[in-house]
Amino acid sequence: MHNFTRNKDRLSDRIMFALELALQQQDLELSEALNKALEMSMTRNTGGGEFVERRDYPKDVEEMLKNLRELKGKK
What we know:
By secondary structure, the chain is mainly α. It has one domain. It is 61% helix and 0% strand. The protein contains three helices and no strands. It has helices at 11-24, 28-43, 59-74. Helix 1 (11-24) runs parallel beside helix 3. The protein starts with 10 loop residues before the first helix and ends with a helix.
């Protein structure tokens, strides 16, 4: 299990936990949907339609995204 902070009040933390489980179960379709939800939850209310995210994702999120890319390569 990853070490990211699981704050029960932050939607992004709950989505990261679900994404981690979906990746462990190698569920590509659900992993992709959760990844999209994670992106939305991390960037909402951050500057409108022209906003470009300039922060780096936490190391745990980067690892999950790497796992998602690997899972896509298998399918």
